[in-house]
UniProtKB/TrEMBL annotation, chain A:
Provenance organism: Octodon degus
Record's bilayer topology term: Peripheral membrane protein
Residue sites binding a 1,2-diacyl-sn-glycero-3-phospho-(1D-myo-inositol-3,4,5-trisphosphate) per the record: R11, G12, K43, Y53, K57, Y58, V59, C60, K61
Membrane-spanning segments: none
Protein name: AP-2 complex subunit alpha
Lineage: Eukaryota, Metazoa, Chordata, Craniata, Vertebrata
Subcellular location: Cell membrane; Membrane, Coated pit
Automatic annotation (TrEMBL), chain B:
Keyword Membrane recorded: yes
Family the UniProt entry places it in: Belongs to the adaptor complexes small subunit family.
InterPro entries (UniProt xref): AP_complex_ssu, AP_mu_sigma_su, Clathrin_sm-chain_CS, Longin-like_dom_sf
GO biological process: intracellular protein transport; vesicle-mediated transport
Example of a GO cellular component annotation carried by this entry: endomembrane system
UniProt KW Transferase keyword: no
Keyword annotations of the record: Membrane, Protein transport, Transport
All residue ranges annotated as the AP complex mu/sigma subunit domain in the record: 1-96
Organism of provenance: Patagioenas fasciata monilis
The protein, known as: AP complex subunit sigma
Compartments (UniProt record): Endomembrane system
Membrane topology annotation: Peripheral membrane protein
Length: 938, 109
């Protein structure tokens, strides 16, 4: 054990840490921790009052145990007690515990805030510092409510010490980020701006962060910060490296402050005042000049700090996008970095160049580095850097270099990391389409994509190639010939079979004249792949066959034989069987004319405005893609002399997918065209990573939710891919819910992750426990998840079940409300009329009664109403109400903490088709919730 | 190797010192290189305070590591970059410690 170095040692803590470190196994460690927890618990509960030192030591041990990854559910009160200690170290440990382990227990928050308030008012700078650090680390809404008014005063008061000012500035920043609505703007804002002029560079550093964040949202109010920031920056960059003393870092003057000032300036357009503007341009030039000077130190810290400022300056130059001279200089500087021996610099240069490529002034200059970037793609050892190189190639692509860039990306794809293949496939597909002058090149490129990385070609990509081929008759013959040749390969990707099947079904006639690709040969070629394919592809091929019947009468009997075979007509898959039956019938009964009409060539797909670019912008951030993408599009419109074909995305979502042809008999669309909320077929969705936000609730979720209030089993959600079924049972305050996830498709779901989401409020009142499910759900399979439920106290909201998974190439995200409602914890109570009315009268406090008068939404049927009240969970009491038409119920809601007696009365009015529902319970929130839930049922 | 990697919507900037990795998660707009130097400055502060800091110092005095961090970084932003000023604040706090003899003869558990 090392000697405790400084300050006061807590010997018991050091011994405990040594013990833990000496544990030979995880089990031994847990045993030691449990022993310690029991010891601490008994000390805290013991009759003997603990002295401050012991309390501090035990709180510190709890903190250590928490940091090892164990839950701590006690000790908060003792930590709060420490806050009011007069001893600095005890207070300090108390604050640390609160900062690390804050808990939304409202009683404690009040106590904590009280202690903080006292310390803020103490005028003792070290105590004030501790309190401010705690607020900044926790940053909760409650704290913002309590202190957002006070901290600005501390910040701008004349007698506040510098170190306290620094903490106050960043504390306010944290509160503003968390709860901007609670931080009032006022007189203090102008005084904060003037802190940029402060003599103490530490104060300036903290204030610059605050002003930057405030200026982003209130640019007008903080406008004066621009000239102050420029003059401060100018003084820093022109200072000698010794002027700033301890704020110089490895010979670089105040690098952190410089970066922050440059960041602040990026909240504004170039300064209007010519003097300020000139001074800023000088600063930026100085920074660029310094990059060319020999380094003052060989240490990496020196070059990192210097280049951090340089990159931030380049960001500002790109942001202003107004000085061609500076932009080109920036580009040249980045060009040097592209070949630097430091990997980090190469990475950052590629990244910054990506944004430079979007400036009209520097786009051409960026393009001159194409060979270096291509070389980076081939030779970089670090995948992060290669990824940046792909991004930059994509950003610098235009008509002049598209062929070269697409070819390089294709060849890189053969060896690319699996993690980025899908993205590259999409980028290639987008570029190939956008810059195709010659659509034969486009067709070749996409077929190559499928050949090289078929598994990563999402459905949208092959849909798109089909749309383009159908919409452009100049490429149809070439496409037919090319897919025919590609299909000759002994093993080809299923996506190629899909494209091939579709294109030959439409345009096989264009190559049928050549005896090497006669109708029969075409058919045999496709059919040789049939048995290796999945159901959706086979379904598509069956549609191709019926199209052949129309195109090539000479193969009709061959095809009819195939359709008639048992493996088709009696196929276990309903879709295949139905197609075989219907197509066979169609080919037998329909005249040639009818066949020709029914099986006519597909009409062109409607051309639509691109939604890819908008999506890409969203993904890549507004600064990077915006202008140039727009400009590029305009340019290419000129070249094409007409509107571009809609890039790949629009189709799948808004027009029927190309395989959904033929009177609706056609191939089952493998991707759902319907609206599973985020399951959109948009090509660019694939860019978004699976770790994305929770989807909004699925449409109809509320209705489904209401259906479960009075019953426990059924289907909660269903779309084309997924079905969610529920089965649940409740007893007293406990319950168990079985959730069944059914994969309705024949394709595996990957990364299947259901998550239960509860608000903090709900979490405090409802305890849900579940285990993760297997991330892979096979086609047609069902997996089950069990949720154990404990009702701690009455609650109003419902948990949300969010499900994320990958289906084919697309990311799916579904949210539904999970019907765990307060009434599930009802136990019915039978009682006689007299008892009922006696209790009814006892619950006569106005808050205890909630009444709702509402219109009937369903037919007013007595038996159904009775069943619903029983399903709701209360007992249905007969012969209690003097009016036999009324319904009366009674029961007890069980929660862990209390039991709540509930009485209800429902009075139907048939004439008016209305109900009056009255709830009386011993708790107002319960009356309200039950009334809301039950009102929705009739 | 590159010291930056993308993780969800964030970037992880990391640096290794002996067997310890120091990581920062930053947002898209943040400056990667200056973040690397934030890590380095923090390690320098630990080093100066403990005197040739090693992993065990941080484990056995984890609360100190927190206190130093709070003086240097607050709310995700650099508060004070001057090494002298940060250490001065910590040392002043150490001076406020109660004299050690008070704690002798206190039972370990």
């Amino acid at each position: 054990m090392p000697a405790v170095s400084k300050g006061d040692g807590m010997r018991g803590l050091a011994v405990f840490i040594s013990d833990i470190r000496n544990c030979k196994s995880k089990e031994a460690e847990i045993k030691r921790i449990n022993k310690e927890l029991a010891n601490i618990r008994s000390k805290f509960k013991g009759d003997k009052a603990l002295d401050g030192y012991s309390k501090k030591k035990y709180v510190c041990k709890l903190l250590f145990i928490f940091l090892l990854g164990h839950d701590i559910d006690f000790g908060h009160m003792e930590a709060v007690n420490l806050l009011s200690s007069n001893r600095y170290t005890e207070k300090q440990i108390g604050y640390l515990f609160i900062s690390v382990l804050v808990n939304s227990n409202s009683e404690l928050i009040r106590l904590i805030n009280n202690a903080i308030k006292n310390d803020l008012a103490s005028r003792n700078p070290t105590f004030m510092g501790l309190a401010l650090h705690c607020i900044a680390n926790v940053g909760s809404r409650e704290m913002a409510e309590a202190f957002a008014g006070e901290i600005p005063k501390i910040l701008v008061a004349g007698d506040t010490m510098d170190s306290v000012k620094q903490s106050a500035a960043l504390c306010l920043l944290r509160l503003y980020r968390a709860s901007p609505d609670l931080v009032p703007m006022g007189d203090w804002t102008s005084r904060v701006v003037h802190l940029l002029n402060d003599q103490h560079l530490g104060v300036v550093t903290a204030a610059t962060s605050l002003v930057t964040t405030l200026a982003q949202k209130n640019p007008e109010e903080f406008k004066t910060s621009v000239s102050l920031a420029v003059s401060r920056l100018s003084r820093i960059v022109t200072s000698a490296s010794t002027d700033l003393q301890d704020y110089t870092y490895y010979f670089v003057p105040a690098p952190w402050l410089s970066v922050k000032l440059l960041r602040l300036l990026q909240c504004y357009p170039p300064p209007e005042d010519p003097a300020v503007r000139g001074r800023l341009t000088e600063c930026l030039e100085t920074i660029l000049n310094k990059a060319q000077e020999p380094p003052k130190s060989k240490k990496v810290q020196h070059s990192n700090a210097k280049n951090a400022v340089l990159f931030e300056a380049i960001s500002l130059i790109i942001h202003h996008d107004s000085e061609p001279n500076l932009l080109v200089r920036a580009c040249n500087q980045l060009g040097q970095f592209l070949q630097h021996r430091e990997t980090n610099l190469r990475y950052l240069a590629l990244e910054s160049m990506c944004t430079l490529a979007s400036s009209e002034f520097s786009h051409e200059a960026v393009k001159t580095h194409i060979d270096t970037v291509i070389n980076a793609l081939k030779t970089e050892r670090d995948v992060s850097v290669r990824q940046r190189a792909v991004d930059l190639l994509y950003a610098m692509c235009d008509r002049s270099n598209a062929q070269q860039i697409v070819a390089e990306m294709l060849s890189y794809l053969e060896t690319a990391d699996y993690s980025i293949r899908e993205e590259i496939v999409l980028k290639v597909a987008i570029l190939a389409e956008k810059y195709a002058v010659d659509y034969t090149w486009y067709v070749d490129t996409i077929l190559n994509l499928i050949r090289i990385a078929g598994d990563y070609v999402s459905e949208e990509v092959w849909y798109r190639v089909i749309q383009i081929v159908i919409n452009r008759d100049d490429v149809q013959g070439y496409a037919a010939k090319t897919v025919f040749e590609a299909l000759q390969a002994p093993a080809c990707h299923e996506n190629l079979v899909k494209v091939g099947g579709y294109i030959l079904g439409e345009f096989g006639n264009l190559i049928a004249g050549d005896p090497r690709s006669s109708p029969l040969i075409q058919f045999n070629l496709l059919h040789s792949k049939f048995h290796l394919c999945s159901v959706p592809t086979r379904a598509l091929l069956l549609s191709t066959y019926i199209k052949f019947v129309n195109l090539f009468p000479e193969v009709k009997t061959t095809i009819q034989d195939v359709l008639r075979s048992d493996s088709q007509l009696k196929n276990a898959d309903v879709e295949l069987q139905q197609r075989a039956v219907e197509y066979l019938r169609l080919s037998t009964v329909a005249s040639t004319d009818i066949l020709a009409t029914v099986l006519e060539e597909m009409p062109p797909f409607p051309e639509r405005e691109s939604s890819i670019l908008a999506k890409l912008k969203k993904k890549k951030g507004p600064s990077t893609v915006t202008d140039l993408e727009e400009a590029k599009r305009e340019r290419s419109v000129d070249v094409n002399g007409g509107p571009e074909p809609a890039p790949a995305s629009a189709s799948a979502a808004s027009t029927p997918s190309p395989s959904a042809d033929l009177l609706g008999l056609g191939a089952a669309p493998p991707a759902p065209p319907g609206p599973p909320p985020s399951a959109s077929g948009l090509l660019v969705d694939v860019f978004s990573d699976s770790a994305s936000a929770v989807a909004p609730l699925a449409p109809g979720s509320e209705d489904n939710f209401a259906r479960f209030v009075c019953k426990n089993n059924g289907v909660l959600f269903e779309n084309q891919l997924l079905q969610i079924g529920l089965k649940s049972e409740f007893r007293q305050n406990l319950g168990r819910m079985f959730i069944f996830y059914g994969n309705k498709t024949s394709t595996q779901f990957l990364n299947f992750t259901p998550t239960l989401i509860c608000t903090d409020d709900l979490q405090a009142n409802l305890n849900l426990q579940t285990k993760p499910v297997d991330p892979t759900v096979d086609g047609g399979a069902q997996v089950q998840q069990v949720v154990n439920i404990e009702c701690v106290s009455d609650f109003t909201e419902a948990p949300v079940l969010n499900i994320q998974f990958r289906y084919g190439g697309t990311f799916q995200n579904v949210s539904v409300k999970l019907p765990i409602t307060l009434n599930k914890f009802f136990q019915p109570t039978e009682m006689a009329s007299q008892d009922f009315f006696q209790r009814w009268k006892q619950l006569s406090n106005p808050q205890q009664e909630v009444q709702n008068i509402f219109k009937a939404k369903h037919p007013m049927d007595t038996e159904i109403t009775k069943a619903k009240i029983i399903g709701f969970g209360s007992a249905l009491l007969e012969e209690v109400d003097p009016n036999p038409a009324n319904f009366v119920g009674a029961g007890i809601i069980h929660t862990k903490t209390t039991q709540i007696g509930c009485l209800l009365r429902l009075e139907p009015n048939l004439q008016a088709q209305m109900y009056r529902l009255t709830l009386r319970t011993s708790k107002d929130t319960v009356s309200q919730r039950l009334c809301d839930l039950l009102s929705e049922q009739f | 190797m590159c010291s930056f990697l993308e993780w969800r919507d964030l970037k992880i900037v990391y640096k290794r010192y002996a067997s310890l990795y120091f990581c920062c998660a930053i947002e898209d707009q943040d400056n990667e290189l200056i973040t690397l130097e934030i890590i380095h400055r923090y390690v320098e502060l630990l080093d100066k305070y403990f005197g040739s800091v090693c992993e065990l110092d941080i484990i056995f005095n984890f609360e100190k590591a927190y206190f130093i961090l709070d003086e240097f970084l607050l709310g995700g932003e650099v508060q004070e970059t001057s090494k002298k000023n940060v250490l001065k604040a910590i040392e002043q706090a150490d001076l406020l410690q109660e004299p050690r003899h008070e704690y002798f003869n206190v039972p370990v558990y």
